[in-house]
Amino acid sequence: MIENVLPNAESRRDSATKPRVARDELPWGCHGRVIPTRKGLCQLFGRSYSALALLAGLAMSGLAAEGASRPNIVLVMTDDQGYGDLGWTGNPIIHTPHIDAFAKESVRLTSFHVSPTCAPTRCALMTGRHEFRSGVTHTINERERMSLKSVTIAQVLKSAGYTTGIFGKWHLGDEAPYQPGERGFDEVYIHGAGGIGQTYKGSCGDAPGNTYFGPAIRHNGVFEKTKGYCTDLFFGQALKWMDARRKDKSPFFAYITPNAPHAPLQCPQEYANRYAGKVDTNVAKFYGMIENIDDNFGRLLANLDEWGIARDTLVIFMTDNGGTAGVKVFNAGMRGAKVTPYEGGTRVPAFWRWPAEFKGGRDRAALTAHIDIFPTLAQIGRAEIPNRLELDGRSLVPLLENPTADGSDRILFTHVGRWEKGKALESKFKQCSVRNTRFQLVNNAELYDLNLDPGEAHDVISEHPEIVASMRAAFDRWWIEILPALVNEDAVGPEVNPFKEAYWKQFGGGPAEK
Ligand SMILES: [Ca+2]
Fold it and tell me: Fewer Cβ atoms within 10 A, N terminus or C terminus of the chain?
């Protein structure tokens, strides 16, 4: 099945033309024994990372040991919660005791980066490749649709025997072929568009009349009318599903993606009340939404304990872009927020806990990213990545497993996208960044030394001409690579949102009633 969904020719890069990479330049999983029979090469700068690297990583990892058990995987990614919106990261007001306690037990990736907005991060996470390679350059206008040629981590884990479920926000296409049930998920319990109640022209839209309380949720293609608050519903269904799956012989992958605390800021009043008088009304609701997530996260962990599977379950907590409503209160000293290419736009919390294999209670400062999740989970799940699929990410297993692994340097590319229709070419340097561990080149015009200046306040572009030239050259190469992959730029959406059409087909009614 995976073989049928390989990337198309234009997005494959000819490995015969790639530069050879010296052994000491290879990223983490590539050190040690390299299996020469596998097609593909690890490339410097995180630009391309193939199945070879995965297998090499497996060869040296304890995970490859005969008979080592494969964990269940639970990935929780909240929406629009920034790095600073947790007690653990220093927020002086918010109350997140369950996530904080979990962080304490976890391996914490302290320089973990995602894309600056919702659908792009979800695409990069799902594919292990920069989202532009799958045509995702926006959050609406059919430009949030993940190319049907893309291979998802859900498909790869499923092919290795995992049972897979998504609970919450998908945001990679609302038309039938783009839905998660067609992209590797066995269980699908989602809202439409980029949020509950959202409606845009074309395909991107949720069920009619939905709010965060009692929304109609699409469950394996059939709408269910609900009672209760959205986040409670998504965690509740995920727990119900996990409870059924834990008795199976094969492991599960639960991708829990609440739409909260994304705006509109709607939360149970008792949660907002806890912050009344401490912050303004909107931030009180925003923090209330996060505290509600924290309660649900605590419920999840308590259930894993109660079921006796916590030790053999990898749980990941992360968020999908930089801060939003909370940055004016606390942004952990960073510049920027969601929809910007600065640290504050892309750096998010990333806590990984797998008691059976990872020694927790540690920070890892290496430069890491959402694109690394695909190869990491594939390695952990002992799933084979299709031969010709070349990833931008690299497995984090050595970093998570080995307290002394520090990782070689790499380059990450960020581009906010969201250009006007037809303006991709002229938007090359608009809202973008190139970064390595120490430096970040923003908009091709500003350079920051993150070691000395994590708040990106002092432009040092004139002091490091060689770094700037090297980053510009890398970005030029990357841009040429991704342009042919922008398959959604001229897409024309349907007249009616597919979610609404399906809802009306099930319950009656039509556009006039919206
Ligand atoms: Ca988001």
Answer: N
Token pair, residue 409, equals 């340097």
- Ligand 1 centre from 124 Cα, in Å? 13
Closest listed residue to residue 72, CA positions, set 322, 229, 198, 255 = 255
**Residue indicated by tokens 């072929």:** 177
Reported as a single tens digit per residue, the pLDDT across 376-408 is 999 999 999 998 899 999 999 999 999 888 778
Report the candidate in 505, 506, 503, 508 with the shortest Cα–Cα distance to residue 209. 503
Ligand 1 center from residue 415 Cα (angstroms): 15
pTM of the model: 0.89
How far CA 179 is from CA of 140, 367, 505, in Å, comes to 15, 32, 18
Q: What angle do CA 344, 345, 349 make, to 5 degrees?
A: 70
Q: What is the pLDDT of residue 220?
A: 98
In a domain, 495, yes or no: no
Centre of ligand 1 to C-alpha 128, Å, is 18
Dig out the tokens for 440 from the structure. 């970040």
Q: Is residue 464 part of a domain?
A: yes
* Structural domain total, the chain: 1
Mean pLDDT of the chain: 89
Q: Is residue 498 part of a domain?
A: no
CATH code of 421's domain: 3.40.720.10
Please give the structure tokens belonging to residue 446.
């500003």
Q: Which domain holds residue 478?
A: 1-489
Half-sphere exposure for 463 (CA within 13 Å, toward CB): 8
Domain-embedded: residue 497: no
Output the CA 123–ligand 1 centroid distance in Å: 12
The answer to whether 136 touches 146, Cβ cutoff 8 Å, is yes
Distance from CA of residue 207 to its chain's centroid?
24
Q: Cα–Cα distance between 336 and 319 in angstroms, integer?
A: 16
For residues 164 and 148, the answer to whether their CB atoms sit within 8 Å is no
CA of 289 to the centre of ligand 1 (A): 14
